Amino acid sequence: MHATLPLIQDTDFPAIQRRRLETLQVNLGYKCNQTCVHCHVNAGPTRTEMMSRETINDVLAFVQASHVDTLDITGGAPELNPHFRDLVCAARDLGVRVIDRCNLTILEQPGQENLAQFLATQRVAVVASLPCYLETNVDRQRGKGVFETSIRALQMLNALDYGRPGSGLELDLVYNPQGPALPPAQDRLEADYRAHLGSGYGVVFNHLFVLSNMPIQRFGSMLISKGQFEHYMDLLKNSYQSANLDNVMCRTLLSVDWRGFVYDCDFNQMLGLPLAYRGRPQTHLRDLIGHDLSGNTIVVADHCYGCTAGQGSSCGGALAA
C-alpha cells in the first residue's frame, strides 16, 4: 500500500486549537468482517489489533473523570471486540450517550444474533454505513451481497423502533462518494435516501451523514495507483471554506486507538500523527485523566482540507447547512 503521509505532511492548513472536550471516540480494533475500498482505517478480516480489558478500564476512568457527553465507539467492526458490550453497559451506567458505528452486516454474523436487541435495550445510537441507496453501487464498494444484508439489518433495527419518530432510538446512515469527488448536498441526498429506502424496502432513519473520502490509507493508496492523488488534493484545497474551521470535529473530539494512545481525530490516528501534548512523542489516555485540553494546538496536515472542503465533513456529517 502506498504511503500518503509524506505527500500531505508539508501543509499550509490554518492553525487551530481545541475547545471543551465533548466526545471521546474510541477505536476498539481494526478487525472487521468487511473490506471496503474507501476505508481510512484499512480494516478487514485479517487484522488482529484489539483493545484490551485494561485499556477499556482506562477509557471508563477517563469518561467518568472528564464528564464527556458522548462515547463514540468505532473500529473496524467494534462489536467484534469481546469487551464491547461491557464497555457499552458501563458507559450507559455513567449516564453517557453511546454511539455504535456499525457496518450493519455485523448484525448477521455468527455470535451477534442478539446484537440489535442489546443495542436497543441499552439505547445506543446507531450510526450505520450505507454508502448508497442502490445495490450495485454498495456491492461495488463493499462487496457482493452487502447491500441486501444491510437492508435486512436496517429492517431489523426498524422493527425494534430504531429510526422511528418519538422512540428515542436514533438510527443515522452514512454516505461516502464512490471515488475522488466531493459528496453532493447532504439535505438533497437525504431526501433521495428516504424516498428510495422507504418506498423500496420500508426502511426509515433519522439522519443521513454525508462524509468526504480522506486521501489516506486504502483510499489514498488507490488514488496514487490511479494517478489521481494530486487531482483530488487540488479539488479539496480549491474547495476550502474557512467558515468550516469553527465546526471541525477535532475541536471537541479526542480519538483513542486500540492501545489507548490519543490523537486529535481518527484520521490523524491512521496517519500516526499523535496528539501534541507537553512535548511527548505519544500520550496515553490514562495520562490525561483529570487534565483539560482546552486551547491545545491541533496537529494538522493537508488531509484536513477534506474536512473543510465544500459543505465540510465530520463524523456527524456536513458542517455547513
Describe the structure.
- By secondary structure, the chain is of the alpha/beta class.
- It has a single domain (5-308), classed as Alpha-Beta Barrel (TIM Barrel), CATH 3.20.20.
- Helix content is 32%, strand content 11%.
- It is built from 11 helices and 8 strands.
- The chain has an 8-stranded mixed beta sheet.
- The longest helix has 16 residues, at 186-201.
- It is globular and about 50 Å long.
- The two termini are 36 Å apart.
- The model has no long low-confidence stretch (mean pLDDT 93).
Tag the structure with descriptive keywords.
alpha/beta, TIM Barrel, 8-stranded mixed beta sheet, 8 strands
How is this fold's topology laid out?
Elements: H1 5-8, E1 23-27, H2 53-66, E2 70-74, H3 84-93, E3 97-102, H4 115-121, E4 125-129, H5 135-142, H6 146-159, E5 171-175, H7 186-201, E6 207-210, H8 217-225, H9 229-238, E7 253-256, E8 262-263, H10 266-271, H11 305-308
Parallel strand pairs: 1-2, 1-7, 2-3, 3-4, 4-5, 5-6
Antiparallel strand pairs: 7-8
